[in-house]
Design goal:
heterodimer, A: about 475 residues, alpha+beta, Phosphorylase Kinase, domain 1, Transferase(Phosphotransferase), domain 1, 2 domains, five-stranded antiparallel sheet, three-stranded antiparallel sheet, 10 strands, B: about 350 residues, mainly alpha
């Protein structure tokens, strides 16, 4: 258990940044109280800005609780967590090879070799099997959340959105949308019945494709939910049948074939997948050290590289918008006028980003108040009656405001058009994968009774393809250039 | 292979598994187990506990069966199984502890002939809450005992007992423990205690107003810990805005010390705290019988307040918030200094 790790920021020395997200930064750090001969143990610290974070404190509480109560070789456990000002620090083992997503984009942009995929998937399945057995749904299985240690150990991490199904009020929480769109299972996106264990299995299937091809299917499309809603309706692995097999990743597809059925019932459990032939002769973790980790840049280097790329991108964006510059000047003036006597935020970084001017202290030394002191308090009984009658007066609501979760709404036309264009390039490719996959699958599932449905779906696909062709033509005419 | 199936012993009934569990728990509780037998018996106990969990929650192959759950629950509360389980929890391994916690949670909801028999049991065994409370002082047990405690206070009699005991005072400390998991767990339980059972809470707050809010203000709302302040101001809003607590609310919003604290929270750099503080502050402003000193503070800070409120916006659009804000601003703008009586 991680309780030996100190819950005091002074005991950790930050070495460098190794990851960042909207409201969290991941550091490589040294725990000064641990490890022999004064070297200290290297750890990863995820620092979450609690004020920026969309998640409410309850979900964060459940996340850290989950992380500290799970104990399995394939699960990234938290050593401890504590708050530092407005940020929550979650101290975890340092996984020196980083996430598979980062390994893919750094050295394997067109996918991993099959034996490596088998090892990674098998270890991930062990994690899922344990997690599901414990009543937890991970909800965000993807290469970016599968981490590798220096010794080739594979761990499933980031429980940013994982939820215990056994928890008392799980119904309400499960219905929240969480996870990353490309990996989401259809029933999650459609979101009528919320999540189940099998949603993880779908994401696992998408992750398998991601490992094989370097990116998830449909990743060319903007990650809008409404868009995905449409796509996944058509993106049924079972919609496609027959056709040629010219993919050398046969074993993988066979493994995958079991998974990616849109019907939740048909999707196998993690346990059942583990028994699949694909994993029978899978190599050990040492294999990963030689074949995956050798020659890999360090996590720090990879992070720096990715940061260069993103910052170059954002620079271009902000140069394009004049308002960006104006905001900056505003910010500066605002900071100078801000009261320096405020006691609560001295330690906070990133204050410069605050656009809002803050009020410089209240005046409580009101004339009269000081004079009369405590004698001012009027007859309580009278006051109470007066107020309680007035509190019933209409107009002013005393009710707590319940924020209704509003879904992002995208203009349908735009999305439709964009999706069709993007789909053209992407779907053809994906169709091929999927076809191969289904071919292998046909034997397992004996889809004889489904012919009608399949015929119907083939029609749908054909129509869709025609639509796309038309759209493509239109675009060609409009742009005067071919789109690839 | 088929032979093995033939000789497989008959599956045990839920009641039998409860009895086997209880027998082992008694042995571990008494501590009279020979060292050589210990490991084996612990493995058996863990297995039985796992089996009980599976009956109550089902597994990947099967949903729970109502009849089996009822049997289990009845047998469980027939004797002191719950007490034994709680006492022996420190002796169990992590997996068995988690299973046990889930079992206890589930049992609180099981009805036998439309009665929550867990509630009846706990009513006669309230001292178990004293044991569960000690969990917060022990890092290894905190999350398990904490979860169990939160489940037990679903029952009004149990919540009333904890609220009125000295335990409540300890929450002011537990909420601020450095270990986030444990502090957050304590905060969740504290919130549950002060919001779930309306009539009990209303009675508690009016009887204990003075000490409770003195502690609440100084230890929580004015804590140096961001999370503590944030949770406290949110919970304060939840309590005061609840209709059943309106006498307490009326009293709270007539105090200029309270107003001072809320106004300071409103000018924190944290947006989340500002918004939550507004939901309490609006009550001070909306009070149609504001004491003169409250009025005068609001008047003295009129322009600053209006500016601050003008800038205060929620991330997502929130009509209710905007309407409340407009109303409060209007009220403040129209205030005139009041002669003190």
């Amino acid at each position: 258990m991680g309780q030996e790790y100190p819950v005091d920021p002074k005991c950790y020395e930050i070495i460098g940044e190794i990851g960042s997200g909207v409201s969290a930064i991941v550091y490589k750090a040294r725990c000064l109280r641990k490890g022999g001969t004064g070297t200290g143990t290297i750890v990863a610290i995820k620092s979450i800005d609690l004020d920026q974070s969309r998640a409410d404190l309850d979900s964060i509480r459940l996340e850290t609780k989950t992380m500290s109560l799970l104990c399995h070789p394939n699960i990234l456990q938290a050593h401890c967590s504590f708050t530092v000002g407005r940020r929550l620090w979650v101290v975890m083992p340092f996984m020196s090879a980083g996430s598979l997503q980062s390994i893919l984009s750094s050295n394997f942009s067109s996918g991993l070799p099959e034996p490596c995929i088998a090892v990674v998937l098998k270890e991930t399945l062990k994690a899922l099997s344990y997690l599901h057995d414990q009543g937890h749904v991970h909800r965000d299985v993807k290469a970016g959340n599968i981490l590798v240690a220096y010794d080739g150990a594979v761990k499933l991490g980031d429980f940013g959105v994982s939820t215990p199904v056994f928890d008392a009020n799980f119904d309400s929480r499960l219905k929240d949308i969480a996870g990353t769109p490309y990996w989401m299972a259809p029933e999650v996106i459609h979101s009528h019945n919320g999540y189940g264990f099998k949603a993880d299995i779908w994401s696992f299937g998408i992750t398998a494709l991601e490992l094989a091809h370097g990116r998830p299917p449909l990743s060319h499309l903007p990650p809008s939910k409404s868009l995905l809603f449409k796509i996944t309706k058509r993106f049924r692995f079972s919609d496609y049948d027959t056709i040629n097999i010219n993919n050398n990743k046969l074993g993988l597809l066979q493994g995958l074939g079991l998974i990616s059925y849109i019907e939740v019932v048909v999707r196998p459990t993690a346990d059942k997948l583990l028994r699949h032939a694909f994993f029978k002769n899978s190599k050990s973790c040492d294999f990963l050290v030689k074949n995956l980790l050798a020659g890999l840049p360090t996590v720090e280097e990879r992070f720096k590289m990715s940061k260069c790329i993103t910052s170059a991108n954002t620079k271009m964006v902000s140069l394009g918008s004049a308002s960006g510059a104006t905001t900056n000047t505003n910010t500066n003036t605002a900071t100078t006028t801000t009261n320096t006597a405020s006691e609560d935020d001295a330690t906070e970084t990133g204050e410069l980003m605050k656009k809002q001017r803050r009020v410089s202290g209240w005046n409580f030394n009101v004339e009269g108040v000081r004079f009369h002191g405590e004698l001012v308090i009027p007859d309580k009984r009278v006051e109470y009656e007066a107020f309680s009658s007035s509190s019933a007066s209409p107009g002013f609501s005393m009710g707590t405001t319940t924020p209704t979760p509003t879904e992002e709404v995208y203009p349908v036309d735009q999305v439709e058009e964009a999706s069709l264009v993007a789909l053209r390039g992407n779907l053809d490719e994906q169709r091929k994968n999927v076809k191969d996959l289904i071919t292998f699958l046909g034997g397992d599932q004996g889809g004889g009774g489904e012919t009608n449905k399949e015929e119907h779906l083939t029609d749908v696909v054909d129509r869709l393809r025609r639509e796309m062709e038309q759209e493509k033509e239109k675009q060609r005419v409009a742009n005067g250039v071919g789109i690839s | 292979m088929p032979m093995k199936g033939l000789f497989k012993s008959k599956p045990r009934t839920p009641a039998e598994i409860v009895r086997l569990t209880r027998d082992l728990l008694v042995q571990f509780d008494m501590g009279g187990i020979r060292e050589s037998k210990r490991e084996e018996k612990m493995a058996d106990l863990s297995k039985h506990i796992r089996d009980l969990k599976c009956i109550l929650y089902g597994n990947s192959e099967a949903e729970p069966v109502a009849e089996a759950c009822t049997q289990l629950t009845q047998e469980f509360f027939k004797e002191n199984t719950l007490r034994l389980l709680i006492n022996c929890l420190p002796k169990l391994n992590l997996e068995a502890r988690k299973d046990a916690t889930q079992i206890v949670a589930n049992l609180q909801r099981q009805q036998v002939q439309s009665r929550l028999i867990a509630s009846d049991y706990l009513e006669n065994n309230k001292d178990l809450m004293d044991v569960l409370m000690t969990g917060y002082e022990n890092t290894d047990l905190a999350l398990h005992y904490g979860s169990m405690l939160r489940e037990c206070i679903r029952h009004q009699v149990v919540a009333k007992y904890v609220l009125e005991s000295d335990h409540l005072k300890k929450f002011f400390e537990f909420i601020q423990l450095p270990n986030f998991d444990i502090a957050a767990d304590a905060a969740a339980t504290f919130k549950e205690l002060l919001t779930r059972h309306k009539s009990t809470v209303a009675e508690f707050l009016s009887k204990n107003y003075d000490w409770f809010f003195a502690e609440y203000n100084s230890k929580l709302l004015e804590s140096s810990n961001y999370i503590t302040r944030r949770q406290a101001v949110k919970l304060l809003g939840d309590m005061l805005l609840d209709r059943s607590n309106s006498p307490t609310m009326t009293k709270y919003v007539s105090s200029r010390d309270n107003l001072r604290i809320l106004m300071n929270l409103m000018r924190e750099s944290s947006k989340t705290i500002q918004i939550e503080a507004f939901h309490v502050f609006k009550l001070f402003a909306a009070n149609q019988n504001k004491p003169a000193d409250i009025v005068n503070i609001l008047v003295a800070n009129k322009s600053k307040l209006l500016r601050l409120l003008g800038d205060l916006k929620t991330d997502k659009e929130d009509e209710q918030f905007d309407a409340d804000k407009a109303q409060v601003m209007q009220e403040i703008a129209s205030l005139e200094p009041k002669e003190l009586a």
